[in-house]
Amino acid sequence: MKRGWVKDWRKDDDWRWHPLNMDRPFTEYEAFKDLIKLANHETRLVPFNGQYVTIQRGQYLTSQAKLAKRWKWSRTTVHRYLKSLKSNREADLKANSSFTLITICNYDIYQSTEEPLRNSDETPMKRKQNTSGHKQELKEFKKLKNKSIGRKKKNYGKPGITKL
Fold first, then answer.
1. Distance CA 67, CA 43 (A)
2. Closest to 88 (Cα-Cα) out of 72, 106, 71
3. Residues paired with 153 in a beta bridge
4. Closest CA to 99 of 41, 43, 51, 57
5. pTM of the prediction?
6. Which of 42, 132, 159, 160 is a good FRET partner for 27, with 20 to 30 A between their CA atoms?
7. The domain containing residue 52 runs over which residues?
């Protein structure tokens, strides 16, 4: 079952097997993981072209030329890839001739600040209720299971000699 998530360390690009340290282009998967890591984990002011720009959590201010160099792709490939992320609603883009602002859609799913939820409808309060109610549900389930299977204690009578 492929559920759950793994927190990924932003500094793993120092690792020798990271795509940045290998003589090959990134895969599309690696590029998306890279964007998630590069995105701001909190809102902050970033210097850009001599002024400060507010970049929100889940956004990354860059250029397609920088991404092309980083991922070892052509600019055309980067442009097509970003366009694909936008059409699949995985990222939103604001671009002009000097920068590209990438906003990762559903960033909190990938990089939550809290413990992950088991499913998107579950809140921390619901999780607590679900956990505390689990024992009672288990007891009720066992009762129903025993009834449906017909597990009743059979009375075989007192042991003794029977006449044939």
1. 22
2. 106
3. none
4. 51
5. 0.61
6. 42
7. 10-110
